[in-house]
Design a protein that fits this description.
- With 584 residues, this protein is an alpha/beta fold.
- Helices cover 25% and strands 22% of the residues.
- Strands 12-25-26-27-23-24-13 form a seven-stranded mixed sheet, covered by helices on one side.
- Strand 19 and strand 20 form a beta hairpin.
- Helix 7 crosses helix 8 and helix 11 crosses helix 12.
- The relative contact order is 0.10.
Amino acid sequence: MEDKSNIKENKEKTPAAENISALPVNFIQNIISEDLKAGKNGGRVHTRFPPEPNGYLHIGHAKSICLNFGLAAANGGITNLRFDDTNPSKEELEYVESIQEDVRWLGFDWEDRLFYASDYFEDLYQYAIGLIKAGKAYVCDLSAQEIRDYRGTLTEAGKESPYRNRSVEENLELFARMRSGEFADGSRVLRARIDMASPNLNMRDPVLYRILRATHHRSGDNWCIYPMYDYAHPLSDAFENITHSVCTLEFADHRPLYDWVLDALPLEAYPRKVEGRPQQIEFARLNLSYTVMSKRKLRELVEEGYVEGWDDPRMPTISGLRRRGYTAESIRDFCERIGVAKRNSMVDIALLEHCIREDLNIRAPRIMAVLRPLRVIIDNYPAGQVEWLETENNQENPAMGSRQIPFSREIYIEQEDFMEDPPKKFFRLRPGGEIRLKSAYIIKCEEVIKDERTGEIIELHCSYDPDSRSGGPNSGRKVKGTSHWVSAAHAVAAEVRLYEQLFLHENPDEIEGDYKEQLNPDSLLRLSSCMLEPSIREAAPGSRFQFLRQGYFYIDPVDSKEGRLFINRIVSLRDSWAKAQKKM
């Protein structure tokens, strides 16, 4: 196995540092600043992002990625990517590859500092032998349920295992036999010998190793015993000379165990050279409204077919957000805006939507797309004539220039832009009424054609004012409504997918019963007969646009093929979060 004990120290900022703004002051930065001022760790700042490869990363992990890489970059330090691959029964190479893709896509680079907990399996084993020799670990024959029963409660001390006082020699022999595969899965564990009366349940002789026969994605069947996370994590940090081990708040109660593992043996007894002792610091994890963030629950949604995969655009996974059309810049902006706190709270998903709107408002070109087409025939427009009209690419960014769009006798408008018997404040098209077509002419509805059998409106016959075109004698004539449109002869057909929140309840984890009962049945609406202006043909898969009056959209790079477009709505135009902020 490759020896990575001499981990490269590089004081240069990572490339990602150039892509993120300066981090705001937060309590973790304050700790780091004090450490640097005191000369702790020799002035080094070295963080790590340690995901378990048992699923795809989600938006909560994005916060941790931005925080770990961002803190290091802001302080001239470096960051490792380390996979916590200590449970082969749930881990797959697919997840390893997806995690690396997600971190890179967010704009961060671990350079040559890619590690795995499995890099240290032999070192962790040797350290455990050191614990046994020091009388600080023992082999226990209690079952998992018996260990739970012996642990006690928050108000009652635990009971010592009958195997707690085995001799060092017996423990060493049994531990070696555990490694060699002589015992059945679950029949024995290695436990730390700490304090069964500790007020912290994590310190009541926690399990360090368990027997588990499962093929590991890296080490194959070389091992049948695997370290627990609470044991492997602090030692992996020490082996990599991590200075600040940033974790989410649920690990706060585990910090005494983190410290115990590191302090149980002197530095000279470590199987690898270490330069100091890492410090665990906890921050509040991200909880996002109308979303579940449990990897177990997200995995259930995938495996039970409630969504179409880990990258389903309704999922809060980074790959799902990317597939929906979110940009890395918008997610980094979101992570910076929510800040770093010591207490858990719920973040409104509207803030995430606000960040992508703000990002795309300036740089996304505008096009016209009719999602629910209604055919309009302009009877007094010359048959066979086509005009190419000029319209701006982005009114918020004049530097993006303009484009030409075709206009002809037959066009499509949105069904919702016409009402036969409209209410008073309806400013679209009605029988005998007028609207302006964006960057084109004013038209007037003269006749409504319906399906004789169903009564459904299938076609409008209109007239146009030829002098109402921009620059014409009547171009300044006022009408109350303006509609987007597409020339029927030039329209490009596409399937557009309208996504909404995956859950109906603001906090699905709080409801009684099965959280899946709160799944939103309208989280995906497929519109198969959408008509788009012809400039869309020039766009590559993965391009983003604002469809006028509709929202921001993304050409799905997975499903779209030549001659067949699939387009995902990233977010609608309405920004409820920004409006709420103005009222505060």
